[in-house]
UniProtKB/TrEMBL annotation:
UniProt cross-references to SUPFAM superfamilies, sorted A to Z: Radical SAM enzymes
Species assigned in the record: Hungatella hominis
Protein name: [FeFe] hydrogenase H-cluster radical SAM maturase HydE
The Radical SAM core domain, residue ranges: 51-273
Keyword line: Iron, Iron-sulfur, Metal-binding, S-adenosyl-L-methionine
PROSITE patterns listed in its UniProt record: RADICAL_SAM
């Protein structure tokens, strides 16, 4: 117990640890280390970002997907998913509504939908750019070619989220069908950064077959890659996927890793994700208190929210909903945090 506490102290001081020490920090974690890391992570985050949380308006613009990830509810093979795609007009009115509410970042997230060619997606990005020149535009639309990423960047996209899902090639193969490639995913992340996007990666906590040494690989990969943003949340099973009977990830380990990530990468933009809010009551607030500094309320039209079901029981109402920003403001103010009205750009250079 003393050994693991010493490691926690060293992590807080040095913002890194050797891999074997990170492994011990994870496998031998206890309430004492968790509390210590949480307080250190939160204090560090406060020194950098203040007691403010950045908000991003999430627009889930299509649930068509050509991929077949074993964990995901909108995988191609799920015949139960009711498919939809938003029109350009619908997307623009989401942004307009969001702008009025105070959002200055819009995240266009969707499955890998071939309907959204470069031409179509660039047109949409350019229109949003025209509509709100002072907003950041984030895309989260999966793997595309280098040329496609460049064209979208030229059209006005500033940021791109593409979780690496796991930094272990063998584990990647157990979460995805043969048609998907670990090397391609990593190449796509390098392309995004090289083009000049503020780039986000991330992984699921407690995904099937994940071990502590794989999490260490994730942490090491992220520390070396230097992402501007990191998205992590618990794996949650979806009834109509091959992983329907797999155990869910826990809030406890997710919160612990949020603290570790904050301490390893002090300036990173780190959301308290919807999955964390779904797995436990007050999960998002706990995420903020553990070192997260971003929340991404849902700005999608009400009629499609239930259709973007990546996992069972995914939240989209209450303070998850962008139109109830007041509820979010209240719940954050209860824990001593305010909402920042700004683009909230990365401080990572
Ligand atoms: N549980 C938790 N997260 C999931 N994602 C996809 N399916 C699930 C699930 N069942 C995450 C993936 C993806 C992001 C958009 O959502 O990490 O990158």
């Amino acid at each position: 117990a003393k050994k693991v506490m010493d490691l926690a102290v060293r992590l807080a001081e040095n913002h890194d640890l050797p891999d074997d020490a990170l492994y011990t920090l994870i496998t031998e974690r206890n309430e004492e280390t968790a509390l210590f890391l949480r307080n250190e992570a939160r204090a560090l985050c406060e020194r950098i970002y203040g007691r403010f949380v950045y908000i991003r308006g999430l627009i889930e613009f299509t649930n068509y997907c050509k991929n077949d990830c074993y964990y995901c509810g909108i995988r191609r093979s799920n015949r139960e998913a009711e498919r939809y795609r938003l029109t350009e007009e619908e997307i623009l009115s989401c942004c307009e509504a969001g702008y009025g509410l105070g959002f200055r970042t819009f995240v266009l997230q969707g499955g890998e939908d071939p309907y959204f060619t470069d031409e179509r997606l660039c047109t949409i990005v350019a229109s949003i750019r025209g509509l709100c020149p002072d907003c950041a535009i984030t895309l989260s639309a999966g793997e595309r070619s280098h040329d496609s990423y460049r064209r979208l960047h030229d059209a006005g996209a500033d940021r791109y989220l593409l979780r690496h899902e796991t930094a272990d090639p063998c584990h990647y193969g157990r979460l995805h069908p043969e048609s998907m490639s670990f090397d391609k995913r990593m190449a796509a992340l390098r392309d995004l950064k090289e083009i000049g996007y503020q780039t986000g990666c991330g992984f699921m906590v407690g995904s099937p077959y994940q071990t502590a040494s794989m999490i260490v690989k994730d942490l090491r990969f992220m520390k070396e890659f230097g992402p501007h943003m990191i998205g992590i949340g618990p794996f949650l099973s979806h009834k109509d996927t091959p992983f329907c009977d797999m155990e869910n990830g826990t809030a406890e380990l997710t919160l612990y890793l949020l603290s570790v990530i904050r301490l390893m990468m002090p300036k990173v933009l780190l959301p308290a994700t919807t999955a964390l809010g779904t797995v436990t009551e007050g999960g998002r607030e706990a995420g903020i208190l553990s070192g997260a500094n971003v929340v991404m309320p849902n700005l999608s039209p009400a009629g499609v929210r239930k259709k973007y079901m990546l996992y069972d029981n995914k939240l989209s109402s209450g303070s998850e909903a962008a139109e109830s920003l007041e509820l979010l403001r209240e719940s954050l103010s209860k824990i001593g945090y305010g909402i920042a009205v700004s683009r909230g750009d990365s401080l990572v250079i």
